Amino acid sequence: MNKKIYLSSPTMHGEEQRFIAEAFDTNWVAPLGPNVDGFEKEMAAYLGIGYAAALSAGTAALHLAVRLLGVEEGDVVFCTSMTFAATCNPVAYEKGTLVFIDSEPDTWNMSPAALRKAFEKYPKVKAVICADLYGTPARLDEIEAICKEYDTPLIEDAAEALGSSWKGKKCGRFGRFGALSFNGNKIITTSGGGMLVSEDEEAIRHARFLATQAREPVPYYLHKELGFNYRMSNIIAGIGRGQLLHLEEHIAQKQAIYRTYQKAFADIDAITMNPLGGADAVANNWLSCLTLKRDCGVKPMDIFEALQKENIDSRPIWNPMHNQPIYEGCDFIADPHGKENETGSVCMDIYNRGLCLPSDNKNTQEDMERIIGIIRGLF
Ligand SMILES: *Cc1c(COP(=O)(O)O)cnc(C)c1O
Q1: Cα dist. 330→82, 139, 296, 297 in Å?
Q2: Is pTM beyond 0.90 here?
């Protein structure tokens, strides 16, 4: 069997163990402890944001953001359609009414034009959730401005975009809340974990409280609010502190992978690489993706299968949420460019024509040549 090449696997440095060892030596294995405090402070400083709460998952961060904004049964929440289910599921946990928003071609993220159309259609909206896919920032200043105009809070799902920025401001810092993920395949990982970030000190204090079962600060067990077991452990936070020291290095590796693909496919007219957001954006290039021209004779799944045969992982683009059986019946607002293709939306068109390429930090020159050779062989 040929050497396995992963889509995006954990890249550890050994340095993480220094923080874990410290936790063991002081028996501060659980709960919380100095690594949790340290990881929160270090991440907040990196992003340039006031406050952070370390949690068990990115999904937990999104759920707490939705709870803190008071989303209840029947409340309308606008959400990016083309994203991972974790972006919108927390709204369903609270029985909110999801309305999905199309992507725009220049970033693949939430279309400001479709968002505006949605606000014109729905007079009362509780929140907007906007994801930054594959490390490319959404048009976050425009989206933030539209939300402000309609007096609606924004949650930025920056799970895939740690280290990316839009107009000089880091992803995660836009809107009322930002959510980060340290899941195994993300740009830095704690094996599993997430963080909620905000400029609102009181909201982050409340998030920490809700994440630790909402125990009132009295010597007996008193609960006035519904709590969750969502806090990050001191061991896991230690891994995060070690990983954070290597974030910039990981980003540089991911950017080099993207550039290698871009150069290798430059002469193939049928292949276009995923957009990085133009001059206003710095993308962390978490995953490199391509789209294929219609009727070029090759389909994304042809590439997927050709790579799989050689023990190489690739992955389809996120299947839009308005296309999911579980969200059947939810409204969807298309971008004007959707008219230009037969699906009627920008995101279904990207989904049909796109593929995520192996983007592992540890890919060697040789690995990259193998992947590129297989793909070029199909044209
Ligand atoms: C990974 C991811 C999440 C969820 O993060 P977990 O830490 O796995 O819960 C949320 N949104 C997006 C866009 C993601 O890619």
Answers
A1: 14, 24, 33, 34
A2: yes
Q: Which residues line ligand 1 (CB under 6 A)?
A: 57-59, 83-84, 86-87, 131, 157, 159-160, 181, 183, 194
> H/E element holding 270?
none
Measured CA to CA, the distance from residue 250 to residue 260 in angstroms comes to 15
Q: How far is the CA of 197 from the centre of ligand 1 (A)?
A: 15
Ligand 1 centroid vs 122 CA: distance in angstroms?
27
Mean pLDDT per 10-residue section of the chain, whose length is 379 residues: 92 92 81 90 98 98 98 98 98 98 97 98 97 98 98 98 98 98 96 98 98 95 97 95 97 98 98 97 98 95 98 98 97 97 97 98 96 97
Q: Where are the beta strands (DSSP E) in the chain?
A: 51-55, 76-80, 97-101, 127-131, 154-157, 165-166, 169-170, 177-181, 194-198, 271-273, 281-282, 289-292, 315-316, 331-333, 354-356
Ligand 1 centroid–CA 192 distance in Å is 10
54 alpha carbon to ligand 1 midpoint, in Å?
Answer: 14
